[in-house]
Amino acid sequence: MPYTTNDIKRIEAKWQKYWAEHKTFKVSADPQQPKYYCLEMFPYPSGKIHMGHVRNYTIADVIARFKMMQGFNVLHPMGYDAFGQPAENAAIKNKTDPAQWTYRCIDQMREELKKMGFSYDWDRELATCDADYYKWNQWIFIKMFEKGLAYKRASAVNWCPSCETTLANEEVINGACWRCQTDVVQKQLEQWYLKITHYSETLLEDLNKLTDWPERVRLMQENWIGKSYGCEIYFKVEPAGRQAGTESETIPVFTTRPDTIFGATYVVLAPEHPLVEKLIPGLSQEKKIREFIKKAANESKSARISGDKAKEGMFTGRYALNPVNGEAIPIYIADYVLMEYGTGAIMAVPAHDQRDFLFAKEHKLPLRIVIQNPEAPSLKVHDLKQAFEGEGNLVNSKQFDGMDNESAKEKIAQWMSVNPPVAGGETSPAGRGANKMGKVTVHWRLRDWLISRQRYWGTPIPIVYCIEKCRRDGKNFMWPVSEEDLPVKLPKNLQITGQGGSPLTKSAEFIHAKCPKCGGAAIREFDTMATFFDSSWYFLRFCSPRDDKQVFDKKEAAYWMPVDQYIGGIEHAILHLLYSRFFTKFLKDLGLVNFAEPFTRLLTQGMVLKDGEVMSKSRGNTVDPDEVIAKFGADTLRLFILFAAPPEDQLEWNDSAMEGSWKFLNRVWNTVENRYQPAERADSAVLDRADKDLERERHSAVKKFTENMQKGFKFNTAISAAMILLNAVDQYKADGHSKVKQYYLNEAIKTLVLLLAPMTPHICEELWQMMGQKESIARVSWPSYNEAALEQDTAAIVVQINGKVRGKFDVPAAISEAELKKIILADAKIQQYIGGKAVQKYIIIPKKLVNIVI
RNA sequence: GGGCAAGUGGUGGAAUGGCAUACACGCAGGACUUAAAAUCCUGUGGCCGCAAGGCUGUGAGGGUUCGAUUCCCUCCUUGCCCACCA
Predict the structure, then answer these.
(1) Position with higher pLDDT, A765 vs A227
(2) CB-hemisphere CA count at 13 Å for A669?
(3) Would you say residue A269 has pLDDT above 60?
């Protein structure tokens, strides 16, 4: 039979049908069997799969099939992250319903995935937009609400004017919306948050457990959580002349540099700081300050954080007292201080902080040097061209003078946390430290997660607001929907226009509800959940996807979880992976799971490039997997992707290398077809040199292939081991009349097909059948190797003189050192290189190398 | 500005202290063919040499070592992440 595109198409279709009909990859929990949960990040169903998907899922499929052959009970599911804005945008554009569009895309995507021959247990397929999935989103939300971990709060939030919705901090990239790149603005809104900060400490701490995660993902999460040790210092506000006697306000500032406290020459509040309202009324410049605050608020986030922007600010007219020396310093409002970090207020030390330095120069504010550079010890204020941010010894700092600033950080923080302000009087706000100058604190960069979205195509937040009795009684009127009323279903067939806010606000059918408390009239919350909520626990749902009684089956989850190998793009290093870790910790606290981390091992696959650039629709340099499959078949595509680069590295698309993969499979095919002959088991006692060499090549290929699969999934070098075996088989001259030779040839060919089975499953199934086997190759045991068969009789010894290669010797493998030396020194060429000089020593690495030092 | 990763033939890549360039792609030459495709064989880092062979070579410079692509230091370049984070 020839090897043509049509044959390949027929073979691939045949085996895809076989796997589907025989449910080859259907699994169930079996405590007698070791489990392996292999999971790829499920796709957003946009219809067509792209090369990034193909690479991601091919890597996962090879791992799943390899583990299956190694005897594991492998869970390998697939689903769709199906809620989200693209469905709404498509619905607006095509005047259809987001649900219709999404399910059509899912159908299309499923077909494409099947064409790749992936080993999914299709009976577990799920889509997050199914009511029987998002019902459990709502259930989890209510549990969080009950524990105080889901709450509603008004504050300045990130708002994307184009998507007309709020965004989480994690979704703002360089001040712009992650989805549409529109500049994000700040807006004051009442929104739902999840209290991920409740787990800050353990999210950080447990990163240490994730030893099989890429180092850089752990670092990115560590930076994102951002634990910083520092000090909160209390600056008492001086009463304004007329208001003398009124209760004084205190400004807590956060700093990581308490060693510079004696150099503070002004205090700065963020424009949104709540204290501003209390400080400015009645001041002559009140109006101007309000204008400035308004201007700052309207500025887009990207403009505000851009590095080269001049720092703008205004003097409030008020002063604050530095607790360490009682000095009155001016209070400013400036846009370079961010409300969302620290306390939203800073002490400015212009001599030792570049941002403060620039602002001080601009506003002619004084500088004071409190750290002397040991390399230029007579630093003067008027010499400063920029802030001195280096290490040094303290000056102008009273009893701390002369101390190195690293020790001073700790000493001063300690001193402030036990002593009242030197200027006297009460300064610490209630609960922050009873009348002390400051306190040692820890600050986190991680913010609570804003999950409200003013969009239609998402999980409705299961909350109702009573508008009758509860509200009239004036107490709580916000209630979670009771469990038996879940799911709160999304209404169908709404008009999606993309304008005028969420379509849910206009659906009478949706809005009106009954108050779960008093039974009176109520209206529903019409915000939906961010889709990252959906994907934060889907891996648990895959353990029991059809369970309609509970969020997931505890027993099933206990067997399958945690995920042994998770595979996906680096772009989810923070968002999805952090949220999933948070959910797992919450579910552990609920007693539903008994592990703290959902993903034991993580592999982040590299991007697919073409012409040196990331393949993307907007660049127009995509290669359609469908077209490649039509021409070469799925196996060739899979092999190319695995062979072209290690999975973590970028992969450069190359058409001619694609043909190389085709050629290789063609050779494998021809070898089986032309050289495999049924033969009986033969006596190994009659092996000649060539047979032994072939056997050694076979065992060596199994060893190298298996080790490369196990140590970091180095598929490219595993494949090269298989290629070497094929080369050895092709070189091997089997005497057609010798049963012994045919037997060993058959063994080598069978091994080759088994090794390739996880990578190119269709063709290997077909070849396996051609070789007379009845069983699907997917369930055959992985081949083993024998160390003894790898032994060689002779060893090639490299001889170096002073580290330079000067000769090679074939010697018996078991030779003694003395004999080895004798043989080498007897060589005329070696003697010529030694040239009569005295040999200082011999470095001998057995079976490898001898270095003669002269 | 801070952090991390990576720099090896014409190309993808291999070697993690012991023969640099495994395995492929590409290219060149040859066989088969009326011819082409396919397939097979040979060669393929650079320089010198008819050859045997020699010298040189893993971004640049230095160090450790009998021996460095591999470990350490400095620098350059590229990529990624974070960033008025106090």
Answers:
(1) A765
(2) 19
(3) yes
Nucleotide nearest to A670 (CA to C1'): B39
What pLDDT, in 10s, does the model give residues A109-138? 999 999 999 999 999 999 999 999 999 999
Among protein residues, the one whose C-alpha sits closest to the C1' atom of B22 is: A720
| 3-state SS record for A651-691 | EECCHHHHHHHHHHHHHHHHHHHHHCCCCCCCCHHHCCHHH
C1’ B11 / CA A654, Å: 9
Structure tokens at A69: 């052959």
DSSP assignment string, A402-465? T-BHHHHHHHHHHHHHHS--TT-S--SPTTS-TT-SEEEEEEE----EE-EE--SSSPBP-EEE
Calculate the dihedral angle through the C-alpha atoms of A185, A187, A193, A199, rounding to the nearest 10 degrees.
50
C-alpha distances (whole Å) from A519 to each of A361, A461, A482 are 64, 19, 12
Say what the pLDDT of residue A391 is: 81
Residue recorded with tokens 């200082």: A840
Secondary structure element (H or E) that encloses residue A35, with its range: strand A35-40
Nucleotide nearest to A443 (CA to C1'): B85
A228 nearest nt, CA–C1': B85
Task: Please report, to the nearest 10 degrees, the dihedral formed by the alpha carbons of residues A578, A581, A582, A584 taken in order.
Answer: 160
Smallest CA-to-CA distance from A746 within A668, A673, A685, A675 is with A675
State the average pLDDT over residues A623-648.
93
ipTM of the complex: 0.94
Could you report the per-residue pLDDT of A484-531, keeping only the tens digit for each? Answer: 999 999 998 888 877 777 888 888 889 999 998 888 899 999 899 999
CA atoms within 13 A on the CB side of A532: 23
Number of C-beta neighbours around residue A224 at 10 A: 17
Give, in order, the Cα–Cα distances in Å from A343 to each of A231, A354, A441, A673.
11, 20, 11, 74
What is the full DSSP assignment across A452-501?
EE--SSSPBP-EEEE-SHHHHTTS--EEEPPGGG---PPPSS----S-SS
Nearest CA to A53 out of A41, A65, A37 is that of: A41
Using a CB cutoff of 8 Å and minimum separation of 24, what contacts does A411-414 make? A412/A231, A412/A258, A412/A259, A412/A261, A412/A324, A413/A230, A413/A231, A413/A258, A413/A438, A413/A440, A414/A440
Distances in whole angstroms, Cα of residue A449 to Cα of each of A194, A217, A312, A453 = 5, 20, 30, 12
Q: Which residue is nearest to nucleotide B4 (CA to C1')?
A: A216
List bases in chain B with any atom under 7 Å of a protein Cβ: 2-5, 11-15, 18-20, 22-26, 38-41, 54-55, 66-68, 80-86
What letter would DSSP give residue A212?
B
